Amino acid sequence: MVGREAAAEGFLAWLGGLAAPGAVAALLDHGLRFVDIDAPGFAPEDAALAGLAPGFGALLGQGYGAYAAAHRAALLARRPGLEPVPTGRMLDVAYTLAARAKLVLCPFSGEWVETGASLGTEAYWHGVDGRAVLVCQFSEPIFPNFDTVWVLPDQGLVLFASSQVPNHYVRYLLGELLGSLAAAPGQAATILQRGAAAATGLVELNAPHFGHYVWNNVSALGGLLGPGALAPDFHVSRPGACFFAPVTELLPELSRQPQFQVGLEPEMLALAAEQQAVLAFGKDMEISSAIAGRVLGWATRTCPPAGLAMLRQLRAAPGPLVLLGLRLGNRAWLEQAEGLVALAEALAARPGGASFVLDGMVGGVPMGWTHQLMSLDAEMALAAQVMAGIRRFAPCESVVGASMAESLVACDLCDIFVAPGGSGLARYKWLANKPGVLLSNRV
Fold this sequence. Notes:
Structural class: alpha/beta
Number of helices: 16
Shape: elongated
Strand order of the largest sheet: 1-8-7-6-5-4
Largest sheet: 6 strands, mixed
Helix content: 40-55%
Radius of gyration: 25 Å
Low-confidence stretches: none
Number of strands: 17
């Protein structure tokens, strides 16, 4: 414990040196050496790793894949009952919820150790023998990864896995994290001095848009369903990222737990300090049928009656119901106004005929930064044009600009979709799990 206290004191002193204006930027520019463990030239015997455990460097020297396999094995060795959890991050989350501690690889001993010290978004602190390390789970949104970054203040070293997170993104996220810590040393000290965590919190990914919200966040919620699933002591959502239902409507199992909303990095640090909690950051990419059913059930329950009646009447028409996805801006079929009508006419001419529903951007819900350059009004005008063309020979309705619930019900009722690549796939395929044809450029 004495060694841990000395490590905490040294780390807090290091943070104190970052409080001056521009200090964090200067540290990132020329005060730290960034070393990519996935680079071909990475060598565990590098002088920068001097003083660290040989086993630590040797494991990282095998690349991120080897490290991830070792991390998974360490989690399951301690808690074999977690085996059904498929992905790396959610296995780590399940362990953290069960143990009220995060398992990290100590660079000073080479051993797997537990820590209850969350210092911000995807960041954990461990100290021993007067030395400290920040272990972070930074990554691109698509990767439900284990730990990827090790910040070693005494060595002036940052080790990171570029296969999961590029150098520039590491620097950006570290800037946000260290700036928050340097501005609130009292909160950091409270966390480091308390030892074991008294609570666990599950935090949603700050998804950049609707597609990642479903792919990474909703899929993570699926890990809280089923026999043996563990619930956190509280749940944390992100402002502007509730694209359809509050988490308590999808998972009534969480309705008794406190719900928090956290945006900026200083708020995450304050929450960890105030709740005396270790935070687990949910992230997955496997959408279970159980969580998809919860989402589609919510959509049917909350769909406006007129919209639900219209879609069910369309579904009752003879022949298959074909969903046609519209998209303007990037990844758009330039001739979609004429092309979709021609496609629909050919399908309707087949024996049995067909009915059609147009889908695209929804109304009333912010869809994330990637959709800010798209125009809902323009897409609704396109939908009206396509719908008028199709109605000359087949039934056709549109849910473009309608509610998220109406869009999801349309996806659930259709037999097949034809759509460009994009966030719409989160509804058509990942949630409704319908077969379809994806429109794209020639490759």
